[in-house]
């Protein structure tokens, strides 16, 4: 469970790093670290997807899809000028991802507690 928790933590950090890289590019600041941030988030997303519950896997893919879509718009300068935050929808997806990860980890912890209690009673 600790390995899963660490992986999910690293995934969230990487996804937020990718988000920050896109936001930096949109603000016409440095984009030097965007490719690395995207690669790290993608790698952790694939790794987490191998062990994630179906609902968590959907949330991982949804967040990744949202980040890719916005990154493309920002890189190609296709963000409408009246948009104040092109990543607003992505932020919502990241919140949903975090909630899915928390729910899975807490349900796994509860199952682990029950298994330990049964083993202690045996």
What do you see in this structure?
By secondary structure, the protein is mainly alpha-helical. It has one domain (2-121): Four Helix Bundle (Hemerythrin (Met), subunit A), CATH 1.20.120. The protein contains 4 helices and no strands. Helix 3 runs antiparallel to helix 4. The two termini are 22 Å apart. 28% of the residues are buried.
Structural class given helices, strands, pairing?
A: mainly alpha
Roughly what is the average pLDDT, rounded to an integer?
Answer: 89
Query: What are the segments in which pLDDT stays under 50 over at least 5 consecutive residues?
Result: 112-120
CATH architecture: Up-down Bundle
Number of domains: 1
How far apart the termini lie comes to 22 Å
Q: How would a textbook summarize the main sheet?
A: none
Strand content: under 5%
How are helices and strands ordered from N to C? HHHH
Which radius of gyration do the C-alpha atoms yield?
A: 17 Å
Q: CATH top level?
A: Mainly Alpha
Shape: elongated
Number of helices: 4
Q: What's the total number of strands? A: 0
Helix amount: over 70%
CATH topology: Four Helix Bundle (Hemerythrin (Met), subunit A)
């Amino acid at each position: 469970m600790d390995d899963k928790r660490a992986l999910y933590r690293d995934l969230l950090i990487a996804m937020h790093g990718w988000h920050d890289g896109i936001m930096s590019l949109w603000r016409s600041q440095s984009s030097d670290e965007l490719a690395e941030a995207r690669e790290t988030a993608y790698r952790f997303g694939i790794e987490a997807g191998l062990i994630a519950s179906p609902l968590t896997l959907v949330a991982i893919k949804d967040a990744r899809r949202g980040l890719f879509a916005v990154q493309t718009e920002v890189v190609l300068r296709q963000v409408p000028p009246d948009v104040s935050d092109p990543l607003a929808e992505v932020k919502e997806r990241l919140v949903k991802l975090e909630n899915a990860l928390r729910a899975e980890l807490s349900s796994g912890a509860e199952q682990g507690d029950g298994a330990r209690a049964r083993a202690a009673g045996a």
